[in-house]
Amino acid sequence: MIDQELNELQKIRYDKLSEFREQGVDPFGGRYERTHLAAQVLDDFPALEGRELRLAGRLIARRGHGKATFSDLQDGSGSIQIYVRLNDVGAEAYELFKKVDLGDIIGVEGTVFKTRMGEISIHINSFTLLSKSLRPLPEKWHGLKDVELRYRQRYLDLIVNPETRNVFIARSRIIATIRRFLDDRGFLEVETPMMQPLAGGATARPFKTFHNALGIPLFLRIAPELYLKRLLVGGLEKVYEINRNFRNEGISTRHNPEFTMLEIYQAYADYEVMMDLTEDLITHVVDKVFGTYELPYGDQTVNWATPWSRLSMLDAVRQHTGLDFAGLSAEEAAAAARRFGFDPDITPLWGDAVNHVFEEAVEPKLIQPTFIYDYPVDISPLAKRKEDDSQLTYRFELYGCSRELANAFSELNDPIDQKARFMAQLAKRDQGDHEAHVYDADYVTAMEYGMPPAGGLGIGIDRLVMLLTNSLSIRDVILFPLLKPREEQGEEDAELAPDGPKNA
To answer: Which of 208, 182, 180 has its CA nearest to residue 195?
Structure first.
């Protein structure tokens, strides 16, 4: 039964639906064989001029002129103008076409031509109604500007905002290009568990669940790292995974509880090999997908051409603050960091103080692609310790536009050292740090069978897409970001009224 609270325009569309059925027109048609997409016609006009083609898409604009009507038809490739004339289709069909609403999906058959104004168009000789739209699209001139509504009803956002479609097309191409790059270099794509008995491989709060049949608690994974490194032990020497991680944390322009990560592991490599791989991979993606190394981000222009800057963390802190943490005790480092707001809830470690100052004073200034390497061991429990400085590890992070994009190590493959670091993390957890690493005994057991030296790399796909597509919020690059449920039902109807959304 039709909802009695339907607004007047929706009632008109339902009336048309009934009228079409009474006339024997199926308002929700089936298969329609297309010969071309809109973009193909526009791109290949000289070869297609005068030919009869079949297209299908959504009607998004209409300009009537008595016995002739111009409309715009939008498909997945773009939009093209169509021209329908009474004398060509007949009176009955023309009257039917005039009843077709904006938003309806139709199939058309006609001849390619160019109007006197020079616009490439399709001169229609027949059309088929394929799907009746029962809700009006947002008004043309306002579009869908309400940001929250765009995220909640992404399908509308994709219909009316071409720039949104372009972002997600670019995202798909970025991921496909990454896969081809790694496959061509001999890496094997694998899949590891999404539900895990221990939430390991990163420092984050996990989402908890429960398996009824087994009667055990499980966690949605916060990282695939420890499983991927088990594969190195098993003899799979070059592996990668592109998949979801889940972290029970706050939501911001940079964070979504569900996000996509790329993780890569290569036996017999180290963090310098992974640094070179990161440069090669990202510049390859930028070139193949965008065709230029200079891309805008906000009011900045980022140059992705290599080589990128490389700085140790201690040198970066020294350059930007004048503080030299080398040789300081944990207490001295904490005292030096207090001027930057360092006030830990638990007993501070030397590396915690260094990292705090880096995040506060250095990270915001890293606009162009920059590698920061040699991270403190206190904040790098899975990275190999440096031979010449036991306080530091062979670890780097890649920054661009003040954002961390990648994290990589020379992987720790000493099971004795790994166990000791897990125990240190347990001590932090006992002091109240709920994001400290858990102790994964089976991972240590795997390492005891012999894990080859290796380099590991993780790249946040969402953040990478953000920077490459000039998207200022992570929600702009995730098709269906997590949102707080609406408090009131029916609110969407008011916001989608034809005179535009409330906050346009």
So the answer is: 208
